[in-house]
Model the fold of this input.
Amino acid sequence: MQNVKLNNGIEMPLLGFGVFQMTDAAECERAVIDAIDTGYRLIDTAASYLNETQVGNALKQTGIARNELFVTTKLWLQDTNYEGAKAQFERSLNRLQLDYVDLYLIHQPYGDVHGAWRAMEELQQAGKIRAIGVSNFQPDRLADLIAFNKVVPAVNQIEVNPFNQQLHAVPWMQSRSIQPEAWAPFAEGRNGLFQHPVLTAIGQKYGKSVGQVVLRWIFQRGIVSLAKSVRKERMEENINIHDFELSAEDMLQIAALDTATSAFFSHRNPAMVEWLTGRKLDV
Done:
């Protein structure tokens, strides 16, 4: 597994395993165990996924040394403030049954992000978090956070897929030493991604699946990606992207698919902001 060095010097795997929407406890535990057995070392969860306990159980069962794993979790909205972040982080740590997490992210760009960030800076100083970052922040929100705080976010986890390539945001983040990380690299199969003629033709050229082509494209852009599956054969397929390289022409063909529009929703849509900020969870 290849790693990328974050802006504070720690290393993060370039390909990870996400557990979003894995609500069945037994299935989630089995998936994480299978993912680690397959070779994944980056495991990405969140308080709002309501499966940190299952992830923690799975990590204990694998017997893999803690320093070989890279565990990410995220702060949910209702506690995006100084005191709330400290309290929710401790609850996440207890559910994960860990002494520290490798990466802790502010999940959404709303609430008192500055207060939460200062709490996270202190938790990092205390050794409970190795790197701190954010999720779903556009460059203007990142610029604001950086301007008023000491620590520059190590990571920003955002939607990146062939239909929403973040062609402005990714270079901007990279120019500020913020590592981009892609959620929903396959756009959850929307817009016919797995049947797209450009992607299938590139896959046929290399004897690879559309999923492998997409993950390789993200990898070649220097972006960390999170692939999700409960099927071990798909996990193995998704991790097997290091024995081929997309040409400059392939990369241009994929670049032409960009619509600069989310396959899901806009974080700047007032109705979505109202829904997200109103979503109170027992975390």
